[in-house]
Design a protein that fits this description.
Oligomer: single chain
Radius of gyration: 24 Å
Structural class: alpha+beta
Distance between the termini: 53 Å
Strand content: 15-25%
Number of strands: 8
Order of helices and strands: HHHEEHHEEEHHHEEEHH
Number of helices: 10
Shape: elongated
Amino acid sequence: MDGNDENGIEKPAKAQRGIRSLETAGAILQAMAEAGGPMKLRDLAEAVEVAPAQLHPYLVSLRAMRMVEQTGSGLYGLGPFALEVGLARLRAQDAYHEAILRIDQLAEETHLMVALSVWGPHGATIVHVRETIARIHANVRAGGGFALTSTATGRLFVAYLPEAMTEPQIRAELAEQASTDPRFAFDEAAYRTQVAQIRERGWETTTDLPIPGVSAVAAPVCDYTGTMKLAVTVIGPTQQIDLGCDGPAVRATLDFTRRLSADLGYRSARARG
């Protein structure tokens, strides 16, 4: 049967009914995951908003499934099977694939170009570009790259990747620029300070550089090991992109990358603390 009544009018979809006990069990596991360590029964009950006496039968069943374990001091934490389930999901996640599935939403929200980049043999390499109606006079295309010394995306990779990976590319860029412009000067101390600030802040911007009239914000996507997997860069005409901390482009970019990183299992050092 379809969802129409006898007059051909579509009926509103009925809310699917779940199993309340399973939802409660899920809430228990979520509370333990967010706690980051074993919990007292009282604290767990408070987090789930269930009386300790009502919580105990759930814990008995979850312990039997190895989803929960009890320490020698009586605290409750996630068990080995919970870890196996989490690792199975993480292994099935692919940062690039997930970003591609979601990138349209970011582009539509910001009305700006969005580029995905990964680290390749030749440095920060663009692997996907989502165009927008905004006209941007910049050569941003799949297969191209971002300079490590003059772009937000490039500096982002330098901030997050091991120095042994990025330093040869930085030296090659500087040598090429010096060979084409004898007057070229590079303030390396200022550059290293800027990179350290990016690592602390977690994102980077550039205004009118390296292309006048074009600005961008870039942020990393990290996996459960804390490794940066790719960069998300939102690019637009300078007059159309607000690069302030509370600007819509920055907020949307950070919401996107943080949510995707969390789905890949990433927890920041601040969250772990």
